[in-house]
């Protein structure tokens, strides 16, 4: 079966516009498959080979089933999220044509940009899609997001700032919702304590499956409760070609990464990073609602381990107490032996020794 037809008949939702309504409408209309993003110019029904037309009744039934459901029940779910993050290096780095080339080559579901200037506003005119830019106060650049899927307008989350005089303007995180996953597009501060405070602030705001992606400006490992570092491990930035650093990262919760790669740098001083993300299955609560995620399983395992450790604590304390008591007894005996060796002999013993010496020839 040709790959193009197989995608439609199999309803791979992330293949085109991301909606089952559009895919099912294409099956009984004259809309070309190209509008589904499937790369074919023939029309849905007229040019389908005869061996594929037997599947149309089941597809019609699926369409009727979708139409009978409410809008929330038939909301599209993108199975695989292809995400790219790139720091563009302001005016001297990558431009609109470079970003458009990356989009055409990799076809991401979400493109997160840092140090994006006003020139990037021309991106939808070249590649279409949705584009939002969040300028940084007092700077010529800011954060930007592009997606071929419809996006709700992101909002800017203010981040903790430094009180040191001469600090840079306050930074923000661009919060984007795509499907059931919340993304935070970040360009964090250079202070190693401050950028970790900013990460903690973002993590406390996000709910459900989430990912913090962008330029962390962080050196060394990062620990964030409930989140895992799922980004590529290769360096992404080499200032003045002297040292290589992994500044561009992705910390995620409730997501699995099946593919992570550092892409070609181009005219920027940062390499883009590409991630193929999958939402982990939800954990059903006692009321039958899917409110929790796999992270709650991890939390439950942590609590159980803690409970077992607390229940075993008396035994561990007794073992440790016995060990230290034994060690203390040995130390006391050794110390007593040294003292006895250094203690002077009694007077009677000395007199006896002197008499023996006098009798000696």
Task: Give an overview in words.
- By secondary structure, this protein is of the alpha+beta class.
- It has 8 helices and 12 strands.
- The protein has helices at residues 3-10, 20-27, 56-68, 96-106, 123-127, 192-205, 294-342, 347-359; strands spanning 80-87, 110-116, 130-135, 142-147, 155-158, 172-178, 181-187, 210-215, 228-229, 248-253, 255-262, 273-279.
- The protein has a 6-stranded mixed β-sheet with strand order 3-4-2-1-12-11, with no helix packed on it. A 6-stranded mixed β-sheet has the order 5-6-7-8-10-9, with helices on one face.
- Helix 2 (20-27) crosses helix 3 (56-68).
- The model is unreliable at 1-59, 71-76 and 283-295 (pLDDT under 50).
Compact description:
The chain has helices at 3-10, 20-27, 56-68, 96-106, 123-127, 192-205, 294-342, 347-359; strands spanning 80-87, 110-116, 130-135, 142-147, 155-158, 172-178, 181-187, 210-215, 228-229, 248-253, 255-262, 273-279. Mean pLDDT is 75; it is low at 1-59, 71-76 and 283-295.
Rg, please? 33 Å
Strand content: 15-25%
Kindly report the spatial arrangement of strands forming the biggest sheet.
3-4-2-1-12-11
What coarse outline follows from CA principal-axis ratios?
Answer: elongated
> Helical segment tally?
8
N-to-C CA distance = 120 Å
**SSE topology string:** HHHEHEHEEEEEHEEEEEHH
The level of helicity is 25-40%
List the helices and strands and how they pair.
Layout: H1 3-10, H2 20-27, H3 56-68, E1 80-87, H4 96-106, E2 110-116, H5 123-127, E3 130-135, E4 142-147, E5 155-158, E6 172-178, E7 181-187, H6 192-205, E8 210-215, E9 228-229, E10 248-253, E11 255-262, E12 273-279, H7 294-342, H8 347-359
Helix pairs in contact: 2-3
């Amino acid at each position: 079966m040709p790959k193009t037809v197989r995608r439609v008949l199999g309803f791979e939702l992330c293949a085109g516009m991301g909606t089952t309504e559009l895919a099912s409408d294409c099956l009984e209309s004259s809309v070309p498959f190209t509008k589904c993003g499937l790369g074919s110019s023939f029309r849905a029904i007229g040019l389908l080979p005869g061996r594929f037309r037997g599947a149309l009744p089941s597809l019609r039934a699926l369409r009727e089933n979708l139409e009978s459901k409410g809008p929330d029940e038939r909301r599209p779910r993108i199975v695989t999220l292809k995400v790219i993050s790139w720091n563009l290096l302001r005016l001297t780095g990558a431009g609109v044509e470079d970003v458009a080339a990356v989009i055409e080559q990799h076809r991401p579901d979400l493109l997160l940009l840092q140090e994006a200037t006003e020139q990037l506003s021309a991106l939808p005119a070249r590649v279409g899609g949705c584009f939002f830019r969040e300028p940084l106060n007092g700077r010529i650049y800011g954060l930007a997001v592009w997606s071929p899927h419809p996006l709700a307008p992101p909002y800017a989350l203010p981040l903790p700032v430094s009180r040191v005089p001469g600090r840079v303007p306050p930074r923000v995180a661009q919060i984007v919702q795509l499907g059931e996953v919340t993304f935070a597009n970040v360009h964090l501060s250079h202070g190693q304590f401050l950028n970790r405070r900013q990460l903690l602030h973002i993590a406390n705001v996000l709910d459900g499956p989430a990912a913090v992606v962008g330029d962390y400006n962080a050196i060394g490992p990062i620990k964030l409760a409930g989140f895992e570092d799922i980004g590529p491990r290769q360096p992404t930035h080499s200032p003045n070609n002297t040292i290589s650093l992994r500044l561009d990262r992705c910390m995620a919760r409730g997501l699995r990464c099946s593919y992570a790669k550092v892409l070609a740098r181009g005219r920027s001083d940062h390499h883009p990073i590409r991630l193929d993300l999958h939402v982990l299955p939800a954990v059903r609560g006692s009321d039958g609602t899917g409110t929790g995620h796999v992270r709650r399983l991890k939390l439950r395992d942590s609590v159980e381990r803690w409970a077992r450790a607390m229940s075993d604590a008396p035994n561990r304390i007794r073992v440790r107490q016995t060990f230290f008591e034994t060690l203390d007894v040995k130390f006391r005996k050794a110390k007593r032996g040294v003292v006895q060796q250094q203690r002077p002999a009694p007077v009677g013993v000395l007199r006896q020794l002197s008499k023996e010496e006098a009798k000696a020839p």
